[in-house]
Amino acid sequence: MTSFNDFGLAAPITRALTEEQYSTPTPIQTDAIPIVLAGRDIVGIAQTGTGKTAAFALPILNRLYANRKPLEKKSPRVLVLSPTRELSGQILDSFRTYGRHMRIQSALVIGGVPMGRQVRDLMNGLDVLVATPGRLLDLLRANAVRLNQVEVLVLDEADRMLDMGFIHDIRTIVAKLPKERQTLLFSATMPREIADLAAHMLRDPARVAVTPAASTAERVDQRVILVDKPAKSALLIELLRSEVTGQTLVFTRTKHGADKVVKSLHHAGLSAEAIHGNKSQNQRERVLGAFRAGKLGTLVATDIAARGIDVDGISHVINYDLPNIPESYVHRIGRTARAGAEGIAISFCDHEERAYLRDIEKLIRITIPATDRRSAPRQDRQPADNQRPQQARRGEQQKRAGQHQPHGNHQQNRGGQQKGRGGQQENRGAHQENRGRHRQAPRFGKQQHRNDAGRHEQPRQADPAAVASDIGQIAFMRQAPRQAQGAGDANRGTR
Known about the structure:
- The chain is α/β, with parallel strands linked by helices.
- The chain has three domains: 4-209, P-loop containing nucleotide triphosphate hydrolases (Rossmann fold, 3-Layer(aba) Sandwich); 220-372, 3-Layer(aba) Sandwich (Rossmann fold), CATH 3.40.50; 442-475, no CATH class.
- Helices cover 47% and strands 14% of the residues.
- It has 21 helices and 14 strands.
- The chain has a seven-stranded parallel β-sheet with strand order 3-4-2-5-6-1-7, with helices on both faces. Strands 10-11-9-12-13-8-14 form a seven-stranded parallel β-sheet, with helices on both faces.
- Helix 14 links the parallel strand 12 and strand 13.
- Helix 3 (52-66) crosses helix 4 (85-98).
């Protein structure tokens, strides 16, 4: 199909598309829209930025227009789930844009904002509800929403939505939906294990894959820079000053890392802001608004927060940290080269991230060109080799020290076992000297009685103050027994 008019969509929808200057559908739209219009379940896989949202929003709006019915309180007819607040907001904007002449009732349910307004929006029922799983579960527990009237369920970014971090929430939500429903899954990637899991939720789904799973956009110029981890900040500043001419999206693996990058850029006099899960919804909306308007040149983001960042003017995507999940790389670089434009993706890779790079290249089935900016390019493994002899010598020293220590203990045991034997006086003398060196005060027990007998008192060299302290303690604790045993001790010493 070469035109949106060929789909047979309702007049209000085609009118809105004309106003938005939509003329030719993308491949995913050409393949998916007829299937969704027919009422079948679908798994749609396409590169990010190719129009997946319109591929499910347009046929859903056509269904709502053709089958109008009174809304029931607290109940939506269409439920769209997405992993992030930003992506949820953009999906709702698309529904409202394409359905501006239909007077549909729609609402957004996301975290980070008060629930009061969301409860009021749900009170009289909705045509379309776009939500994140966490906040939707909160409203379910508060009995503010009912899902027994849902006709269509959409899972956007399905690989993330069905990942292990979201699977329990998804199962809880799906359990409350009617069995007779239409389920649509759309995503840029679909790992095999996630597809198997999703298959349990769909009935005889049609599979639409306009590009191979986990492939990258052809118009993205990809390259890797091998760099020492401490030098990443300086390299980023160098690139932003010398090479980057448009807007740049920088990815970090952690929220703390995003804030740290922004701080280093501010110190270098560069304008940048961060967006991640620790930011309030108002902060995220303000930063995204400035980025879309072109007032902010550099946006630093984490993977989850970046889902839904749909800005046509992004010329560069820089992976400050390589993602530990290979599929995230496809999503990251898909933020550039949108709507037929060209883009550049640059990835920093330190020694600890080489395994991540291999996983990414295996997934996308290409070898990314690399340049080496490390201080010692060919000496990655030499420090480890140089340390091995030192470690070996250290181990030998520890081994010899360990062997010497048991020998001393053995001498102590021999000295104790051979007490009273006239031929072993040298061993006992060494034993007593060793005890005098390592222990300042005598201990209670049999050895004390042996010393009280007058043997080997000269080699002990005990501390008189410590001995007096111990004698004082004995006198305090055992006064009566000590008086009764005095004569016996004296007699024992003269035997």
